[in-house]
Sequence to fold (515 residues):
Amino acid sequence: MPITISLDSLTTDPAARRAFNAISLAIAKSKKIVIVSGAGISCSCGIPDFRSSDGLYKLVKDKYPDTFLKGRDLFDSSLFRDPQSTSLFYTFISNLKRSIDAAKPSPTHRFIKTLDTKGKLLRSYTQNIDGLEEQCGLAGSSSEEVRSGGKGKGKLKTREVRNVQLHGDIHRVRCMLCSADLVCGEEHMEKFLEGEAPDCPECCARSEARVARSARPLKVGSLRPAIVLYDEPHPLGEDIGTIQTADINRKPDLLVIMGTSLKVHGFKKLVKDFARVVHSHRETPLTPLPTPSPEKPGKKATKAKKESWAGKVVFVNKTAPGSEWEGIIDYWVEADTDSWSEKTLEEWKKMRPADWEIQKTLVGDADNSFKVVKDVAANKGKGKKQNLGRENIPPTKSQASKQTMAAARSLPSPPSSPSKRRPDSCHYSDSECSPSKVRVVTTNNAEFEERGLLFGDNTNKDGGKDLEDELDLGKPVPPKKTRGRPRTKKVEGEEVPLKRATSRRKQVYVELPAL
Fold:
């Protein structure tokens, strides 16, 4: 069974206090936290949940007793088969959206944003359709910022999605024919309030274009709220599956489940998949080593190197988890999510005050005075990279150019490459190579004068005198005799050249006819 913690008994129950401190330390030290939330985190914002005594299911059943036997029937995909239930659904969603538009984020939403700012949030998964996480600065899977404009399979920029909306977004509408996704405007709300579905503008544009060229008009689809009902596939199901697989491969070290009763089948599977990976970080029991060798006697069993604070699954809700979660959920915090979030942040600041130190950013003015631009929390610690893109202000263009020029002056000039050296220079220059490879070149002009070379320094001396008078060219040397076959013979005292031997081949002459 999970360890139960009540916030009211922290001052009187030492065991509950130790367990709460362990959770707070795990949140402060974890680097890849997965948050899974439900409608309970938005109750303090004035938005009702689904299954409580004053939730949406009870409200629907009391308001339409003759149409729906259960409140869940209003959120089932089969309601589109009946025009009356469809009209009631549109009216109900219109009123629900107006109450959501007036809501503000709760302390729990801001707590999730704090984890993201500190670089500890791996991803947030929510069942909510209110989009309050996006108001805090967490880009949702239905946001325009994360839409991919390419022609590939993926419709989302998965790296930029910080909050995955598992049940859609009430602030958007979707065409039931062409699946066009649009922002829900005031004109759509007025139609929904009347129990009618507005026409899709993209379908209308295509149909009008065909009529303009005398073609048959196309069917025009109707818009509906872009929320996912029971027994209905998610339009972004493939992208959400890709995001979940990527997060599981990154090995999250802490799982926090908040404000949900864990009743939806697909949602339960997602929680169990993450819990299985998170539990792999827990300390394992003592593992005995093989039989010690005679050289090293007395070696004891050792523990696998695991962090004691990692590998926890925390469930924060007023209602207890079911029996099927035994062995999966480690801690059950019996409290509302806002109280637990605020209390956890207080303990975090006491345990690790260095994580909350304020770093002031100063900017110089024209009169050489400085002013504080922004106070940010410094992210200190060994081996931690500061998240400069989220907490620090980027320098202006002028500051960036000055910094670049100063850095360029301080750097030494790079050595020249071999391709840029002079052509007459060797690969190893005389100033850079080793002493054994230095070239020694000597010019002795006396040798040129003594030997009387043609290109010596005395070539053009004395106005160009005849060089034969001063240069001793020596006597001509007769050519050496060759040892080959003699070419001549003496006949009666005279040299007579020898005749070459005729070829032994027979010569055949053929008379050719005259042309």
